[in-house]
Structures are given as structure tokens and as C-alpha cells.
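Appendix B. One record, verbatim.
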Amino acid sequence: MRLSCSRVEVSFGAVQALTDVSFATREREFLGIVGPSGCGKTTLLRVLAGSLRPQRGEVQRSPAAGRNRTLLVFQENNLFPWMTVLENAAFGLEMQGVARETRESRAIELLERFGLSGRERAYPHQLSLGMKQRVAVIRSFLSDPDMLLMDEPFGALDVQTRLTLQQEVLALWEQSDNSVVFVTHDVEEAILLSDRVLVLGPSPGTVISEHPVPFRRPRPASLTLEEDFLQFKREIWADLGLETQGWFAAL
């Protein structure tokens, strides 16, 4: 699926959240979006998902034949507490009418692949935060949407778990036909994952720059220590205005 935003504006009463937002996604693209806190990143994802109607502008969708589904994934994993890990992972397939044996087989394959073997009959309260987020990501990809919209899904995780989940998401995406729009406050994460990075300016949010990521895949975590990566990160930080806050001192 491809999405095209044309001069989108959103207000909540007297507060303007987004103004003149225009950009287009590409087929099977992993698009990263970064911006300062409160710039409307989550609001933009809700507009893309179709759950929020803009006051001005429009979003056009070009789905693949026979498909027209977007799925929004938040930082909170939103697992159903009364369902087991296996039931949560296979929930999207169940909603599509996939037979129980088939959906459980597909879910078990991914649960085993991502280190959750033996946890199939556990309940969410018995899992660590990282494990819960793994289940949420597996459920999202098994639902097989055209467009996956992810709102800082790893923001609450420790660094090691976060790096692991980043690679797992990339592995799932590379084997799918999905497009991904990934919102994050972490510039390094955006660069490691994305084909392009869009930068939103401060509230009201609008796209102020676009940065095609020049690094070939796969991108190991060690890439973040290389000078080319650091220079690219500086360019995005400059657009975010972080150089005026002394952030460059550590680079």
C-alpha cells in the first residue's frame, strides 16, 4: 500500500496539532518519522490509520489488489489479559477466519523463532515487558496488513531488548509485503530501521525535511559508532534543533 498526505491539518479546539503536512509513502517502504515531543506524531498516525479525520487536506490510499488494511501499533502492547500468548499472537488470523490449526501453527513458528517457545500457554501478566512487546509485534505481522503504523513500540524497553526487537521487526518486514510507518523519538533507531526518515518540526507539526538513509542493509548496531553514521545523525539532529541544546558535545 501507498499513502499520500496532501496539506493535512488537524486541530483540537484552539490547539493546532498538525499543519500543512504533505508526503507520500512508497510500496514496501520502511518510513521513519522523528520529531520533538508534542509535535503531533501520534496524531499523524491516527490520521493515516483513518481513525481521525483532518479538518483540512486529505489522505489517499493506493492498496494492493484485494487488500486495504492498516494496523496501528502503540507503545503499550495492548494484549488481551484473558488470552494466552498463543491466542494473542493468533488473534488477527482468527478475526480473518483462518482455521484454528493453521493460525496456531503459524503463530507457534514465530513464537519459537523469537524466543517465546514454552510460553505459548502463559498469560500476559506472566511475561516481561519485552516478551509482551514481542507478542504484540508477532500478532501485528501475522494479521498481514497492507500498512503497519508503529507508534514508538520500543520506547519503554531497555537498550539490549530494544536492539533485539528492532532486528526481529526488520526480519518480519523483509519477509512480508507490508509497508511500515515507524514513529520514534530515537534518531539512531530511525536510521537503523528506515529507508527514509521524515523530520517533523515543533508543534504544530509539519514535515520540515526528508533524509533518504544511505546505508545498505543489513545494518548492525555497530554501525552507530561509524563516522558516516554519526555525520548523518548530526544532519537530522540539526533539523530537530538539537545542536542548540548542547547535544553535539558527545559526538
